[in-house]
Specification:
4-stranded mixed β-sheet; binds uracil; 4-stranded antiparallel β-sheet; alpha/beta
């Protein structure tokens, strides 16, 4: 048996841990034998000291072994594809990508996460849909992917329970922004569900965890590609811009509306660009034997002919939800954020908008916090937009007048107006595989 304080101390002092020590710690925590305070201290030690490649692999492996695993590909007799993002502000990509890919005839079985620090989580967003269940048994998960080609679920007490617990702990102990914990969290979920191929979306910039730069993003991407390869997965990693929020909507129910619009071909340009690119690459990794260009063509066709919307509705109904966006919760107070002067938006800080949405009640401060699914921010003016004095930059959706007031000030502070057009680049910064 390991002595947990000694394991924490060695990592705190910059030492290496043996595979068995990491395994015992993770499995002990998952069973409830190691308390939250010791695991939180260990995560903080890792935050400062890091884990080497071997330790990161041991951590990922222990997380996978903390529960059951399944081989979706073998169960369906098809190559199942999956996608995952490192977490960003306004990042509802999976909710749009999954039904589009399913509509193109490729099965998607995905395990997602909840909000982490200032970035929202797919599960929290989905739970803003009345009736939606994200905790399915393994059998129900497989059955649903077989029946309708698509399921998105959370980590459960059966599937990667260690990630479920560590993820919730990291969210509230300032231990999100560290590569080995991000890489093991993401890849353990991918490995445990048995997808054949994964598209990863590593966020780069102000709203990425740790304000990761492009070079730091490449390092994280390569770590995850390595973990995936060791487990026999084909992995492609996109590096995408998170300097400003993705799309317009930030906040759980607001993001569901925007995802639905995008699936129907009426989404914001930057978000649509990312969704189409991710879908095209997932189709190219599938067993359809097509290239990315053909994947793009089929993606655009599924959006245009309504089959992607039909797949979304089938999916939401299969998990008990109501796909009609008019039943989504709406915040009682909506305030406009007005431009104090005429100019061009030269900056819209993703982190500041993400924190504003969290402060409005859209995220958690403690593990026990309830999320307010209705609140959030809609950024109407994005980088490069020309605005006149008094034009609407954004909307704040709040529970009450007081939080609306605070939210409006915070969102206004996230904007910078200039007289020159900023140098623009697309959402996709690089691709590694
Ligand atoms: N997504 C995850 O599943 N885990 C992380 O640590 C970050 C993003």
């Amino acid at each position: 048996m390991i002595r947990v304080p000694e394991v924490i101390e060695r990592k705190r002092d910059g030492g290496e841990l043996a595979d068995e020590e990491i395994s015992e710690l993770v499995l002990g925590y998952s069973r409830g034998d190691v308390p939250d305070y010791q695991m939180a201290a260990w995560c903080m030690a890792v935050f400062f000291r890091g884990l080497n490649g071997r330790e990161t692999h041991a951590l990922t492996d222990a997380m996978v072994r903390s529960g059951d695993t399944l081989d979706l590909g073998a169960a369906l007799g098809r190559r199942v594809v999956d996608k995952h993002s490192t977490g960003g502000v306004g990042d509802k990509t999976s909710i749009a990508v999954a039904p589009i890919v399913a509509a193109c005839g490729v099965p998607v079985g995905k395990m997602s996460g909840r909000g982490l620090a200032h970035s929202g989580g797919t599960l929290d967003k989905l739970e803003s849909i009345p009736g939606m269940r994200v905790e399915l048994s393994i059998d129900a998960f497989i059955e649903q992917v077989r029946d309708i080609g698509l399921a998105i679920v959370g980590q459960t007490d059966d599937l990667v329970p260690a990630d479920k617990k560590i993820y919730a702990l990291r969210d509230v102990t300032a231990t999100v922004d560290i590569n080995p914990l991000i890489a093991s969290s993401i890849m353990s979920k991918k490995i445990a569900t048995g997808a054949g191929a994964v598209v990863l979306d590593v966020k780069v910039g102000d709203g990425a965890h740790g304000k990761r730069t492009l070079d730091e993003g490449r390092v994280l991407g390569e770590q995850m590609i390595d973990l995936g390869r060791r487990a026999g997965l084909e992995v492609v990693c996109l590096l995408t811009d998170m300097d400003q929020p993705l799309g317009a909507a930030v906040g759980n129910a607001l993001e569901i509306r925007e995802a639905v619009d995008t699936i129907g071909g009426k989404g914001p340009p930057d978000f649509t660009e990312l969704v189409v690119d991710a879908c095209a690459r997932l189709l190219a990794l599938s067993d359809l034997e097509i290239d990315v260009e053909e994947g793009r063509r089929r993606t655009e066709a599924a959006i245009a002919d309504g089959s992607a919307t039909a797949a979304y509705e089938r999916w939401i109904r299969a998990q008990g939800g109501d796909p009609d966006v008019s039943v989504l919760p709406a915040a009682p107070v909506v305030r406009e954020v007005l431009a104090p002067r005429a100019g061009i938006v030269s900056r819209l800080g993703a982190l500041a908008v993400g924190v504003a949405a969290l402060e409005l009640g859209g995220g958690r401060r403690t593990k026990e916090d309830e999320i307010d699914h209705a609140v959030g921010v809609v950024c109407h003016a994005k980088r490069g937009a020309a605005v006149g004095q008094g034009d609407v930059l954004a909307e704040v959706h709040a529970r009450d007048e007081q939080s609306a007031e605070r939210g409006t000030a915070a969102v206004l502070a996230a904007y910078e107006l200039d007289d020159e057009v900023p140098r623009e680049h697309g959402i996709l910064l690089d691709v590694i595989s």
